[in-house]
Design brief:
single chain; alpha/beta; TIM Barrel; Lyase, Ornithine Decarboxylase, Chain A, domain 1; 2 domains; nine-stranded mixed sheet; eight-stranded parallel β-barrel; 12 helices; 18 strands; 29% helix; 22% strand; binds pyridoxal-5'-phosphate
């Protein structure tokens, strides 16, 4: 494996300079990953996957637009140089801050519920809107990220579209976009069904539709044995849909992809320092205890997600199955867990305090989902620019930075 995220000396230097836990992103990899989507008419990056400014800027420079879901993400996208016209705000609901920002910037909204249409019309008046459709089925790497079907809170239920058409006309809204995103970590089993489900939607909104979005969700091969996502098949089925719909409506429709994970997953690692080891006796487990925890990267705890973990600079020291656990006062604070917390040890050497581990493929939903649980800081983030230069992109954020203010408030 090549590239800066596999350069052990560089990662060790960065950890020494900026402390751990530390996220490191390879911006050249982000830029390269855009290539996966070359067959689509346009690419809209789902900012929630990783909202680091360096990542956002790289994708904007590569020609992507963006999808945002909060006032905070809008601010970050603007700071990275995206124009309001480059953004779509996806909303099953809008909180107060979002409503204000969407109104002030006149953002295009992808409405995920019928009530959203009422809000969009009252906030922005007559104008263009996209509909996020729940086609009645979904798929994902975990039940928790399946975003279609009767038990998903996302999207406008497919049987409501006729009523929605009538209501958008009454409100003076033009439905220019149709969007579907059935889940994250798709294997591609339901592509035909999803494309077919859009036939009806395109027919209903044929007078106004200009763009169809197939959403994101394309899976990333986290394990060496995982099959890479079959983009050729996925794209060709959607492109055939686009051509069919374009012919039916008498103008060329745009086909947009809205990925998060596949653009950034392999472009990030989390470097963490070993603080000690312990064992739980015969038939038990051996733990490597590190300074990153589920406050730094929550995917194993949340989904039983696998992330390959490697010891930095360990050469060919002998390995044995080991658990890797963090510093939080929570027994679930373990990186090596499968579904429902099942132990999933990985081969690692014995490690001494001060040595480093690298948790791989955390560019998507890693730092973006980090928290300050146990009053611990959010990790710092370093970017490696395409010319090889590494730079601190965001310092660690200490929740105690407002401690004095909190004390004042309590007086
Ligand atoms: C509306 C929407 N679009 C795109 C994405 C990106 O999904 P992924 O990162 O799996 O590609 C998501 C993720 O949840 C989403 O909710």
């Amino acid at each position: 494996m090549t590239g800066p995220l596999h350069d052990e000396d560089l990662l060790a230097e960065l950890a020494a300079a900026h402390g751990t836990p530390l996220y490191v992103y390879d911006l050249a990899a982000v830029r390269r990953n855009l290539e996966h989507f070359h067959a689509f008419d346009s690419v809209r990056y789902a900012v929630k996957a990783n909202s680091n400014l360096g990542v956002l800027r790289t994708l904007r420079e590569g020609g992507a637009r963006c999808e945002v879901v909060s006032a905070g993400e809008i601010a970050r996208a603007l700071a990275a140089g995206f124009e309001p016209g480059d953004m779509v705000y996806t909303a099953d609901l809008m909180d107060r801050r979002a409503r204000q920002t969407v109104r002030d910037l006149r953002l295009h909204v992808n409405a995920g519920s019928a009530t959203m249409l009422e809000q969009v019309a009252s906030l922005c008046g007559p104008g263009d809107v996209t509909l996020r459709i729940n086609p009645g089925f979904g798929e994902g790497h975990d039940e928790k990220v399946t975003t279609g079907g009767a038990h998903s809170k996302h999207g406008i239920w497919h049987e409501e579209l006729v009523a929605v058409l009538a209501r958008t006309r009454e409100l003076g809204l033009r439905v220019t976009g149709l969007h579907v995103h059935i889940g994250s970590g798709l294997k591609g089993r339901l592509v035909e069904r999803t494309v077919e489900a859009m036939d009806n939607a395109v027919a209903l909104f044929q007078e106004t539709v200009t763009r169809v979005s197939c959403g994101g969700g394309m899976s990333f091969p986290y394990r060496a044995a995982d099959e890479p996502f079959d983009m050729e098949r996925f794209a060709s089925l959607w492109l055939a849909g686009r051509d069919r719909w374009s012919e039916a409506v008498g103008r060329r429709l745009e086909l947009e992809a809205e990925p998060g994970r596949l653009l950034v997953a392999d472009a990030g690692v989390l470097v963490t320092e070993v603080c000690g080891m312990k064992s739980t006796g015969e038939g038990g487990a051996t733990f490597v205890l590190v300074d990153a925890g589920f406050h730094s990267m929550i995917r194993p705890l949340l989904y039983g997600a696998f992330h390959r973990i490697a010891a930095l600079g360990a050469g060919d020291r002998p390995t044995s199955p080991k658990m890797v656990a963090g510093p939080l006062c929570e027994s679930a604070d373990v990186f090596t867990q499968g579904k429902a917390g099942a132990p999933a040890p990985q081969p690692l050497p014995d490690m001494a305090p001060g040595e480093l581990l690298v948790i791989h493929d955390v560019g998507a939903y890693g730092a973006a989902m980090a928290s300050c649980y146990n009053s611990r800081p959010l990790p710092a983030e370093v970017v490696i620019h395409p010319d090889g230069e590494a730079a601190l992109a965001r310092p660690a954020i200490d929740p105690n930075q407002f401690l004095e203010r909190e004390q004042e408030l309590l007086r």
